[in-house]
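2024-03-11 09:14:02 DEBUG pipeline.ingest accepted 1 chain
2024-03-11 09:14:02 DEBUG pipeline.ingest length=379
2024-03-11 09:14:03 DEBUG pipeline.predict start
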Amino acid sequence: MQATKNNAVQTFPVLLILFILLVFCCQSAIASSEKIIFLHHSTGEGVYYEGGVPDWIANYNSEQGTSYQISERNYPGSPYAWQNYPYDYWNLWSNGACDAGNPNIECLDSLTQSYDVIIFKHCFPGSAIEEDSGNPDVSSATKTLENYKLQYRALRDMMDGYPDNLFIVWTLAPLHRKSTYAEEAARARQFVDWVRDEFLTEDGLSHANIALFDFWGIVAEEDPSPPNGETNCLKYAYEQSHISGDSHPNTAANEAAGPEFAGTIIDAIENYFGSAGSDNETGTDGDDDDTGDDDDDEPEDCPASMLLSDDDPRLDMLRHLRDAVLAKSATGRRIIKLYYAHQNRITALITTNNYVQDSARKLLEAALPGQAEGKKAKS
């Protein structure tokens, strides 16, 4: 009697987790379909188009069975001055200078309702950073390290308030060596280092929905004594001209940065939201059973359809819960990913443990309204 009781106690957490996961019938699995908006101006446009970002993501969708949707927009725009430095994003989103009805100055509330992923960057004049005054002011448009940090912290706090959205922040775009000077370029590098090393960790809190794309690390010269060019400036090989001071990176730079940018987007999405692409729709990802072959990994049935029946109308209720409710939030998408990663093990547990099978069936039947139609549930 005691052994039976202990078995029930030990199995209860498994049943609870199993019941939660059973809402994901493996048929008609949704594909990852996050909507992505990239807010930028000219430098971002070069990377996006010359770097082949939309094509890269389209190819990824084709190969992986995902449906990521990416678009880009010059932001901000008229009636707001086109600058997009840390002050401007703070002013628009935190200080209320935005307008939800105007895409050129759209508010963060509106953007987060329309897009799952929001990416923003600053134009290269943002690297023209002045000396600190010793009086930092979050509401100041003066480009100093002390002001930038206050504005980024305010934006970080604001982004934390949208856990169902992912934000990707670009590091600064460096200036051409003929359009800056050593001390100014060093301050730009100092801000980049702060963003890379401290921005998301300095307060000891988790900022899981904020990721970084290190554009500076790709196109800026970080060698302290380069054979050509100047340290902390646009790399010599990536200059549009070695004579004029145009800070727009050239085609070679864009072609180098584009695939890195696209890969960062996908990695950030799948790390945060999870993926339900082609590898996960069947619940298999190769040899999961440690036997050295793949045959035993393929489940004969989905857990929920095995417990109810293949034609039970309540399966559609479960799929609706998955696709229309859980898939709409970051937490729900992460749970969906967890299910598809372990579907085979769940099926094996139900198949081999009569106590788990009977209890799971009772849980499902008690939780779902209506009577089963069609054939009886399998035992």
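2024-03-11 09:14:41 DEBUG pipeline.report Residues 2-29+299-367 form one domain.
2024-03-11 09:14:41 DEBUG pipeline.predict end
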